[in-house]
Backbone:
């Protein structure tokens, strides 16, 4: 049961008729795995903690560097040299001490990714490389959980929701030929700070919608945002019967 302090803390969400107390209680019971605590994972983690998700599993194998602080808003100058997991956990706990936090300060291999995905109700992929994205996709397919995927480079970003167990396309349906060596990196191409904030916040929004049963998630859709021109496009995705990742599990 939701208590009086929680009613006050989450009152602005509870006021939404589609969410109400029942939706907030679903959030409080939920567990979310966030892979990557950089430009996307920082706002996603903070907003999910603030919104009342009951438990966050935060995974990242890197340490905070000075060049991160331009866009990775959960980290601070004083935490340079700390693990991103420790830094993000401290920021999330300061925002909402009721949110249970579990840190995984290492790069996750396929077996551990799948195990953690099976523990979670939903996975947020905020990683910055194709190898990890493909591994997260496979883990979510095997675990049967929804995946909220985001990416950003330069002044552009994209977000999509995949849930193969529910019959939707998977990440590999979008990039069937991806092998993991075709990444564009922020260190080489640059990225505009607010762009990752926008995409990470939208990932948190999609996660809240899925967990609380609110609104219409971006299933079978890819949202593309160009921050330079403020053009937004929404493309329909279709599940591929010959997809190497989800094609074998049936409709």
Residues:
């Amino acid at each position: 049961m939701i208590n009086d302090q929680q009613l006050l803390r989450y009152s602005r969400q509870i006021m939404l008729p589609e969410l109400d107390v029942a939706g907030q209680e679903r959030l409080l019971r939920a567990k979310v795995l966030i892979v990557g605590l950089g430009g996307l994972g920082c706002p996603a983690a903070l907003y999910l903690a603030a919104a009342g998700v009951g438990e966050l599993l935060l995974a990242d194998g890197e340490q905070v560097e000075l060049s991160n602080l331009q866009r990775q808003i959960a980290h601070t100058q004083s935490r340079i040299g700390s693990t991103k997991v420790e830094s993000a956990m401290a920021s999330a706990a300061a925002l909402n001490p009721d949110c249970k936090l579990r840190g995984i300060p290492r790069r996750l291999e396929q077996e551990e990714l799948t195990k953690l995905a099976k523990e979670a109700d939903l996975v947020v992929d905020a990683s910055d490389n194709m190898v990890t994205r493909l591994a997260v996709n496979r883990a979510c397919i095997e675990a049967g959980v929804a995946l909220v995927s985001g990416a950003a480079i330069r002044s552009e970003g994209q977000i999509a929701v995949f849930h193969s167990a529910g019959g939707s396309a998977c990440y590999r349906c979008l990039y069937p030929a991806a092998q993991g060596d075709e990444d564009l990196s922020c260190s080489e191409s640059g990225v505009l700070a607010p762009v990752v904030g926008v995409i990470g916040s939208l990932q948190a929004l999609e996660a809240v919608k899925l967990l609380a049963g609110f609104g219409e998630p971006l299933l079978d859709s890819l949202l593309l945002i160009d921050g330079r021109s403020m053009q937004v496009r929404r493309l329909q995705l279709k599940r591929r019967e010959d997809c190497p990742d989800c094609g074998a599990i049936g409709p």
User: Anything to note?
Assistant: The longest strand covers residues 146-153.
